[in-house]
Amino acid sequence: MNPVKRILPGWIGTLFVSACCLGAGPLLASTAAAMGAAWLASVFNIYVLGPLVVVSVVWTSANTWRWARVVHGAAARAPSFWLTTLGGVVVVAGVFLPPLVQARQAGVTAIYLGLVVMIAGTVWSLLDQRRVARAET
Q: Is 87 a domain residue?
């Protein structure tokens, strides 16, 4: 399977959750409140967005780990794996931080920073994979 197709679901999930946390969430919450289902917003945040961001980050990091083993021989020696994982941890912290400590701006900043780092790590991994594929042919 193409490496981009393998990593794409993780990216899409992470971007969806981030979009909800950064602005689309309040839009969904206000729509739910307008329809008389304001309780749906908190259920959506706690039981949908939280697990979805964790699954998306784990998916992306696992695929980066898998390819880091192929390219570098061991994932521990692959900076792209560590960069992707670090970015994912920061994104997860940004999603869970605001409800816990009432720090919305810190959460938004963490999400933006984590996304940039995570995407940089996965792009680095994809470039490594492409380099190895070219060398084999």
A: yes
- Tally the domains of the chain: 1
Q: Is residue 136 part of a domain?
A: no
- The one-digit pLDDT tens for each residue of the chain (137 residues) are 576 677 777 767 767 766 666 666 666 667 777 777 766 666 666 677 778 788 888 888 888 888 888 777 777 788 888 998 999 999 888 878 776 666 677 888 888 899 899 889 888 888 888 887 788 77
> What is the extent of the structural domain holding 92?
3-131
Please check whether residue 42 lies inside any domain of the structure: yes
Cβ(4)–Cβ(125) under 8 Å? Answer: no
On whether residue 137 sits in a domain, the answer given is no
